[in-house]
Specification:
about 300 residues, Rossmann fold, about 40% helix
Length: about 300
């Protein structure tokens, strides 16, 4: 597919978040004009705020990386979670539609229950297990039925160099290295399967999609999958970390909220349109660790 490479104006919502910052950097590296929008500039649950902010910036493409995604908090405050993840996406979709712009919206693997045990495709029926997954799915449906020029990207197990407030500022890689330094022994479950996805790589995928008109719903994760234990093992090997890595029992770290045990997505849509830029998950981890060493 031939993509338009002319510079465009991009509004990035959630620009100070883990993924948002990488999206800003990726578009800037591509030569585009980026308008970074944080919670101080735009409140998704407030239609007036959304309309005022986007009409003022008047971008060609809006990328929404913002969400209420702390799973336990969503369970405790379902109305607030729905206001942001559901109604907020609806507000955004209506404004973008009325402006005749393109909307890129980041969703989640948590729209599935994890019982399939083979990679989920875009055509699989969502069955969320928790409030977070349900509110994100509601946002998807609002967008799909409202804004014609849209890209909905479901992703999984994101990690990046920028702090994630919902995870206490530490992604999985940094948490494993911290525990290894402090304890010398780390126990990690091996019965939960994911596709560890670099936020930098996802950001580059979003840039590629912004040049396309193949609108629709996409799965967007690193290629391949692993358990959290295998993910930790790869991190320790790449960083030459001496640690006693053990397999935790299936109920050793009971979740406060139901989560899918199998969160692997297949990038069928991206591959069908020749737009998939993702590499095997191990390469993303290697790139991340190399950048850590340089800085």
């Amino acid at each position: 597919m031939v993509l338009d490479k002319m510079p465009i104006k991009i509004a990035v919502i959630g620009a100070n978040g883990q993924l948002g910052r990488d999206v800003v950097h990726a578009f800037e590296a591509n030569g585009d004009h980026v308008i970074p929008l944080t919670h101080a500039e735009i409140e998704l649950a407030d239609m007036n705020s959304v309309a005022t902010s986007l009409q003022k910036s008047n971008p060609d493409v809006v990328v929404n990386t913002a969400a209420m995604h702390h799973v336990e908090n969503c369970e405790r405050e379902p109305a607030k979670a729905f206001a942001v993840n559901g109604i907020g996406t609806w507000n955004l979709s209506k404004v973008v539609r009325d402006m005749d712009k393109v909307l890129v919206h980041v969703s989640t693997d948590y729209v599935f229950d994890g019982k399939k045990e083979i990679p989920y495709e875009e055509t699989d029926t969502p069955t969320p297990l928790n409030v977070y997954g349900n509110t994100k799915l509601a946002g998807e449906y609002f967008l799909l039925s409202t804004a014609p020029k849209h890209f909905v990207l479901r992703t999984s197990a994101i990690y990046g160099h920028n702090p994630c407030r919902a995870k206490g500022g530490l992604n999985f890689i940094e948490l494993m290295l911290k525990l290894a330094r402090e304890r010398g022994k780390v126990r990690v479950v091996d019965n939960e399967i994911v596709s560890p996805t670099s936020s930098a790589e996802l950001a580059r995928q979003i840039v590629a999609l912004s040049r396309s008109k193949a609108y629709g719903l996409y799965h967007a994760t690193a290629e391949g999958s692993c358990s959290w234990h295998k993910f930790a093992q790869e991190v320790f090997q790449l960083t030459n970390t001496r640690v006693d890595l053990q397999i935790a029992g299936p109920n050793e770290f009971p979740a406060k909220v139901p989560r899918p045990k199998y969160s692997v997505l297949e990038n069928c849509g991206l591959k069908r349109h020749g737009l998939n830029i993702f590499r095997p998950w191990q390469e993303g981890v290697r790139e991340y660790v190399s950048a850590m060493a340089r800085h």
